[in-house]
C-alpha cells in the first residue's frame, strides 16, 4: 500500500481557525430572543506547520471534541447552548470543517457574557494545532422592572385591621430574571403614625 503523499510533504496542524482582528481563538455570538435559536459555527482547519496557510491533505483528518461549560449553561430548561461531546472529520482535500453549536434565544436577563469551551483531542493524520476554542454568548435582554403585586387595591393600597395584624406586601418582577435582584424600600407616613399605627418589618 503506497502513501500518496510525498515523503517530504509536511504534516499539517489541525486546530481551531483564528478569526477577527486581531486574530483570536475566541468567537462571540449574541443570543436571540425567545424562540430565536441560532446555529453558531466554529471552524476546525488544517494549516501548514511553517507558514500557517490553509493546507489540503490527501488523507481525511479525524478528531474528538469535548465541550465544557464555564459560565454558560449547557443543560436544563435554562440552557444557553446545545452542544455535546462528539467527533468530527476534515475530508480528504478539504481545508476545514465546522462544529455547529445551537445558541438558545430567550427573554431572560442574565450575565452580560457567558462562555463555554471546546477542546480537541485524538487527532489523526495531523499534528496538534490550537486545541481549545472559547465561545462567548452576549446577553441582549433588558433587566426586569420591580413593582408591587397586583393583589393590592386598584389605588395601590393594602389594608389591614387595626388589631395587631401582619400585612404582607408583595414585590414582583415584570419577568423572571437570571440575576439576583435587590431593592431598597422606605415607608412614608401619611395619616398613620409609625410605631403607634404600624411597624415596618425588614429582613
Helix-residue proportion: under 10%
What share of residues are in beta strands?
25-35%
Strand order of the largest sheet: 5-7-3-1-9
Principal-axis shape = rod-shaped
Mind telling me the C-alpha Rg?
28 Å
The tally of strands reads: 12
State the order of secondary-structure elements, H for helix, E for strand: EEEEEEEEEEEE
List the uncertain runs: none
Q: Class by helix and strand content?
A: mainly beta
- Biggest beta-sheet profile: 5 strands, mixed
Give the N-to-C terminal Cα separation: 79 Å
What is the arithmetic mean of pLDDT? 81
Q: Helical stretch count?
A: 0
What does this molecule look like?
The strands form 3 sheets. This protein has a 5-stranded mixed sheet, with no helix packed on it. The protein is mainly β and 203 residues long. It contains no helices and 12 strands. The protein is rod-shaped, with a radius of gyration of 28 Å. Helices cover 0% and strands 34% of the residues.
SSE arrangement:
Blueprint (H helix, E strand, L loop, with lengths): L12 E4 L9 E5 L7 E10 L13 E9 L11 E2 L3 E5 L5 E8 L9 E12 L2 E2 L3 E7 L7 E3 L22 E3 L30
Parallel strand pairs: 1-9, 2-10
Antiparallel strand pairs: 1-3, 3-7, 4-6, 4-8, 5-7, 8-10, 11-12
List keywords for this structure.
mainly beta; 0% helix
Amino acid at each position: 500500500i503506497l502513501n500518496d503523499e510525498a515523503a517530504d510533504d509536511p504534516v499539517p496542524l489541525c486546530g481551531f481557525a483564528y478569526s477577527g482582528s486581531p486574530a483570536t481563538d475566541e468567537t462571540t455570538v449574541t443570543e436571540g430572543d425567545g424562540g430565536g435559536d441560532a446555529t453558531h459555527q466554529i471552524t476546525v482547519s488544517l494549516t501548514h506547520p511553517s507558514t500557517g496557510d490553509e493546507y489540503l491533505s490527501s488523507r481525511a483528518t479525524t478528531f474528538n471534541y469535548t465541550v465544557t461549560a464555564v459560565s454558560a449553561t449547557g443543560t436544563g430548561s435554562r440552557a444557553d447552548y446545545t452542544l455535546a461531546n462528539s467527533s468530527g472529520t476534515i475530508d480528504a482535500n478539504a481545508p476545514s470543517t465546522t462544529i455547529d453549536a445551537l445558541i438558545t434565544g430567550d427573554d431572560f436577563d442574565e450575565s452580560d457574557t457567558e462562555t463555554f469551551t471546546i477542546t480537541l483531542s485524538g487527532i489523526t493524520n495531523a499534528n496538534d494545532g490550537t486545541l481549545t476554542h472559547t465561545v462567548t454568548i452576549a446577553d441582549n435582554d433588558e433587566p426586569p422592572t420591580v413593582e408591587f403585586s397586583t393583589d393590592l387595591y386598584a389605588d395601590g393600597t393594602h389594608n389591614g385591621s387595626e388589631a395587631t395584624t401582619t400585612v404582607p406586601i408583595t414585590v414582583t418582577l415584570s419577568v423572571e430574571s437570571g440575576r439576583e435582584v435587590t431593592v431598597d424600600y422606605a415607608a412614608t407616613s401619611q395619616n398613620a403614625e409609625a410605631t403607634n399605627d404600624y411597624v415596618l418589618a425588614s429582613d
